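Shipment paperwork, digital attachment
Item: protein structure file
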Amino acid sequence: MRVMRGEMRSRRGGELSVPQFRTLAYLDRRPGSALLDVTAHIGLTPPSLSKLIDGLIARKLVTRQISSADRRRITLSLTAQGRAILQRSRKHMRIRLGETLATLTEAENATVQEALPVLERAFLDEVE
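Attachment content:
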């Protein structure tokens, strides 16, 4: 995670900061989420996340709508452009991760393979 965060920071002139990436990824998994839902997952204060969302809306990566089920609720969703940037960022991170893993020995790769089911459970629990 440290390497991936560092990689994203080094490419900041690119497309997304780490909090922006995490926000888009969350909205990709949970379209129609409210600001407080995203706040709880990302770990920013509501005013900070609101500012981040405003920036994503200005860049046309996220839309904000009034819920058809409850007019008091504002929902957030990715735009096609937001989804495309998220996919590019994910692809870049997979390439970078693959390059890093390619430097491991056969024994180290075996250890990583054994750990993957544990990591998958841990990350899926965090996402839920």
